[in-house]
Amino acid sequence: MIEYHYAIVEQPISTDEMHARWASCLRPRLPLMQQGAFQHLQNEGPWLVSLDSDVSTELASLQSALGSQAVVGWISSFLPAEKLSQHLSQTLVAKLPDGKTVLLRTYTPRVISALHTRNDCSWHASLFGPINRWWVKDGNNVQHFEGGKWDVLPEYQCIALDEPLLEALAVDQQSLELLEQIEASAPAVFLSSCHGDKLIQVKKALNCARQSGLNHPDDQLLFATLSLLQESRLDHATDWPEVLNKVVEQGLALSDVLSSKLEGDFA
């Protein structure tokens, strides 16, 4: 059987610059965002890039053309590019315990390491089955994971994120809920169309909320939402100490305190 070699490339720079760099790179590539709901993200990456047998030279050439951080890992498999890209596309979606689906950057070191250890899960064999070996860059180190070395595309089982996996991946449920709300109501506030970048932007807003002195999740959610919508933080306002005192010491909801401010009944 023929063993194929591939790199996984993620876009670390602006779209225009990446397109210019891609123009100088002649390696065949396929987008991994193939599922219907995410096809509009295909031009944002990640991509599966076919390599020749001289893998080390090809990887060095890719990094030279696209930037040292562009290549996040490489894979060997008996599957041709079209089938492997289809398989890897499916692995980018996972289910939460409540049945909701989320995008999962399976190809990153923390995620793949957590997933690879869970060989007790029914989805494990289908995830790693078509992979011979998978190398993932982790800073200056490289992690190596063995696959099932199958030469056929399995019937895929969606990755199910149970509580231990959520803990291992540090998935922030509150961030995911806020991301979903903002995407539905005010998508223009996001600085990027990339799901991962959006999640980072939401997490930063929520971290600011948690550091502001607010303890109740609803108050934190409102703080983060307003920070994203208004592009300014509530705790930077001169009257924030008074607002925080009413919420924390008097037990009022942040929404009620802010309503009182708007109505001129804030004292």
Write up what this structure looks like:
This protein is of the alpha+beta class and 267 residues long. The chain folds into two domains: 166 residues, no CATH class; 89 residues, no CATH class. Helix content is 43%, strand content 15%. It contains eleven helices and nine strands. The strands form two sheets. The chain has a six-stranded antiparallel β-sheet with strand order 2-3-1-4-7-8, sandwiched between helices. The protein has a three-stranded mixed β-sheet with strand order 6-5-9. Strand 5 and strand 6 form a beta hairpin. The radius of gyration is 22 Å and the shape is elongated. The mean pLDDT is 84.
Shape: elongated
Q: Report the biggest beta sheet as strand number plus sense, adding barrel if it closes.
A: 6 strands, antiparallel
Mean pLDDT: 84
* Fraction in helix: 40-55%
Number of helices: 11
Give the uncertain stretches in residue-range form. Answer: none
- The H-and-E topology, N to C, reads as EHEEHEHEEHHEEEHHHHHH
Rg over alpha carbons: 22 Å
> Please, how many domains?
2
Span between N and C termini? 77 Å
Strand proportion, as a percent range, falls in 15-25%
Spatial order of the strands in the main sheet?
2-3-1-4-7-8
